[in-house]
Design a protein that fits this description.
The structure is a single chain. Helices cover 10% and strands 45% of the residues. With 383 residues, it is mainly beta. The strands form 5 sheets. The protein has a 7-stranded antiparallel β-sheet. A hairpin with an 8-residue loop joins β18 (247-253) and β19 (262-268). The model is unreliable at 1-9 and 14-28 (pLDDT under 50).
Length: 383
Amino acid sequence: MKKRTVFFAILPMLLALLLIAGATTTQRAKAPLFEQADLFQQGEGGVHTYRIPALAVTKKGALLAVADARHESAADLPGVIDLVMRRSADLGRTWEPITVIRNPPGRAGAGDPSLLLDRRTGRVFCFYAYGPPGVGFFHSAPCNAAADNCMHAQFIYSDDDGKTWSEPVDITAQIKAPEWDALFASSGHGIQLRSGRLLQPYVMRKGKETWTANAYSDDGGKTWRMGQPAGMYVNESKAIEMPDGTVRQNIRHNNDTDDKRVRFTATSRDGGVTFGPMQPLPDLIDPWVNADILRYDRQKAILFSHPADARQRARLTVRASFDQAQTWPLARVIHDGPAAYSTMAVLPDGTIGLLYERGDRNPYEKITFARFNLEWLKHTPRP
């Protein structure tokens, strides 16, 4: 009886302590968080310029940040370009040294990486464009996978959270029509639909015409097919799956609209294979650049990152929508100076990772990883 009396006597105290602990945890969770670190810097390791960020979170929670190491200039293919990676096991607080994950022989190049996680198996794919010596997007001829005068669609994959990578897998013959001049994967990341389908957006060219479409696989990446165009005279795109199962493509458009450069969108009702008409997005400025769009299911939000300047690559901004990308009530500038490509990922603790190009004089001086939460995005800084 004495033990029960003592227990009931201290029970209110225990409950009070639990309430205090819970309140403290809630306060910490709601505190605005923003931190960042430069992962790749121009000139580091003898590399002229690092470009084209790609980001993924593995099934076990490791962060993989991949980029082009452009050895001789900042230019796209053709050029001597390797794919390099940094890896983090602690939500981006610390990073392993730079490692090379694709090193084409001689003066060939591998560029424009895009990462895609298969949640069922844990395999991470890294798509990229392979250019034999002298071959780039505008220096490529109609051909198939066996020719040396055209760009190839390839990927490597990792089954151990990015610690090791496979030999290259060439899927050019599977997804490229012989009459097309060139194609490359839209950099950043692909997505996996709830059905398990893997989607990787691509850009294709035939003469002066360019368009975007999704390569897709329904067998875990063993075979791939190319869908129909989501838009013409466009460039890189990203895909998201909406709650109703439709796939919405967010597209870089290289034409002016009423003297204002904006993003475009198109909707698919068959898993990203065919699309309805392309429509402009007047609220999303686009100075002809690759951007990113991401579902953030924990907060029932959609996030969008882009340089919010109509005429130059600058003012890297993250926006949030809570009505399925109809309006964007939240926006914060991440970097007010020159900035270009960006890509995002939701981290295991619910924070958001952003990998983006930035600099002081031009957008390609460094690639930076930022980690923030939605509370920081909601917070209005004092002037």
